[in-house]
Amino acid sequence: MFSYDKSQRLFIAMLLLPAFAVLALFYIWPSVFNFRVSFTDLSLLSLREGGDFIGLENYAELMKSDGFRRVIWNTVFWLTIVSVGIRLVFGLLLAILIESPAIRRFRLTTPLRLAMLLPWATPPIVAVVVWRQLLDGRTGFINEVLFDFGLIKQPIAFLADITWVWPALILIITWNTLPIVTLTLAAALQSVPKDLYEAAEMDGTNALQRFFHVTLPHLRPTLVIMGLLLTIWTFNNFVYVWLATGAGPGTFTNVLATEVYLQGFVNFELGLSSAVGMVMVAVMMVFGLLYFRYVALRNFSDIM
Amino acid sequence: MKRLICSALALALAGPALAETELTFRYNDPDFETIEAALKDFESKHPDIKVELQRISWADARTQFLRETAVGEGPDVAHMAFVWPLELGQAGAVLPLNEFITSDQLQGYIAPDLAESADGEIYALPWTTDTFTIAYNKDLLDEAGITVPETWEDLQAASKAFHEKTGKVGFGFPAGSAAQNTIWFLANYYWWSHGQSLIVEDGEGGYKIGLTEEMLAESMEYFNSFMGDGGNPEANITGSNWSDPSIMDAMASGEQAIGFFPPGTLREIVKTYQERSGSTETPFMTTTDPAGPDGVASHVGGRSLVINANTEHPKEAWELVQYLSSAGFFSDYLTVQLPANEALLGKLEFGPEMQGYTEQLPHARSWGPYANPLTPIGTMQADAGREFASVFIGEKTPEQAAASYLAGIQKMLDD
Prior knowledge:
The complex is a heterodimer.
Chain A: H1 6-37, H2 57-63, H3 66-98, H4 101-105, H5 109-121, H6 124-134, H7 141-148, H8 165-190, H9 194-202, H10 207-235, H11 239-245, H12 256-266, H13 270-301
Helix pairs in contact in A: 2-13, 3-8, 3-10, 5-8, 6-8, 6-11, 8-10, 8-11, 10-13, 12-13
Chain B: H1 2-18, E1 21-27, H2 32-45, E2 49-55, H3 58-70, E3 77-81, H4 85-90, H5 103-106, E4 125-130, E5 133-137, H6 138-143, H7 152-166, E6 169-171, H8 183-193, E7 197-201, E8 207-210, H9 213-224, H10 245-252, E9 256-261, H11 263-277, E10 284-287, E11 298-299, E12 301-307, H12 314-324, H13 327-332, E13 338-339, H14 342-345, H15 355-360, E14 364-365, H16 377-392, H17 398-414
Parallel strand pairs in B: 1-2, 1-3, 6-9, 11-14
Antiparallel strand pairs in B: 3-12, 4-12, 4-13, 5-9, 5-10, 7-8
Helix pairs in contact in B: 9-17, 10-11, 16-17
């Protein structure tokens, strides 16, 4: 491991300064500006004059709104916990399948990895448009198949029925982003030393025990990082919900990212919209700190 | 050879000099190629002006324009809904046109009250006009033995009966909650024909809510009765726009008997039907919107043209606006839209399937007090879409949704 003296650290800091200045300009300044706007009644119609300072009114309005509690629930539970959980579980199962001896024996590992890339390479907007057609309540392919197999008697409006809309949304998100989880975990699986499996087998363990006592401990760092990254990407995501349901039906699938848009650019309440944005920042800071603690700090310690 | 080179050089240098003014025109409807052709004609008649055509969806048009004008940008001339210019004018986003047109001249257009503010500033030129009517497939209704609905109750009964008899869609309307939703128009027609209005003047120069919670809940209950077995498929909650492709297709393919459309959309349906059937005949007819105790009601819809407050070429922009509002433009290019200039409108001939629009227009009213500075009409429309949809999906009762909607409007008025 390298170690650096004080002058070398100063030199490194000087080299990093321009990058930090760019970050400050494009990330920190807009965030500070947004924070300031969240204490005003700025409207899209009063952009030229600016808004008046109204203290914590926007935050108070959010806190006492039943609708906003639903938005938080949708974002945290459905969009983040459920969708991230499903992708981690299915990603892990698919990774194990792809790296399994049976798949290797039939030389299917590479074709399967390539096939996995197809959904990942599909832009989200294309994925959502295609899935909207597939899930259409009148002419959708999925309804046709369910009819043909006699599983339903009435078509299901997947993106309009409150029983189905969240599962349908999660299906779209999972289809489009599962490959990155699978391929990352498949790569991590390759790094598990084979002799550990041999030793475990000699000790008389079964496949399940080998998974829990050999595979999973080795995958834990990758799972933690992937879980955190997925959480950050998903929690902030606007595209899937907005394009698939427009936060509807009604406001049933409204999440924080779509609420920012609705308040800012449908209701024109930029101050309130900024306050919603600040709530998002506050929640994301928790995940950001976790990421810093488990990932960035570990890497940073290598040069200290 | 030298002459040839000199001529080429002179032409090359003269080229940019010919078009001294460059304008941008932002257009939001789908018939982009028609406008492109018209702009070429305009350029040939005004060799010193070059026009770049920009395209944007209606859903983003207003907010994008506001964002751009706030920082000194945006197109020179823009296409707006009738109800937007006053709020855009108050936001300082559009140029007052009093230098180019007088208040008296504006009276020759449809809905001048939506273009001219109370203090006499003219912020837009009304461009095209329309309203919504009930359109139906005569053959389908005849086969099912159902008469053309005249009242709201008739419409409800006809939709349900047709669906029960044929299994097809009765009255199919987009029930979704996007910002530009259709239920807003249906709901307002219902309220107006029952003698109420969401926003009214308070008699003291201000505005107040003119709709009771009971009437709003009743209208929610009424439109909810169409969902599913009432003849409007639940899947229509995924569509919000009156030009929703699945509804247009259902009409054109004979899977739906009754719809609710502006003239441009109905023309597209008729065109699709004729292309598919190879016939010039059409089974589609229009009739006035359903009557309530206070008769028939609809809104005077339409589009306006505005000039950006930041334009460096106001005179040239006005020349473009004038060209786009001319008789030649409507007869040679934008033939699917009705001009908002009443003198031009009177000269137009309608086909038989458009008869309902001519009967409906005298019953159409301006949004009037809706276009006030306190309650942005786009926000009221978006909120209405969300609250109606929350009833359609069973998330809220009509009473809860009505209370929530009116509380939101009252808050806007109070603020």
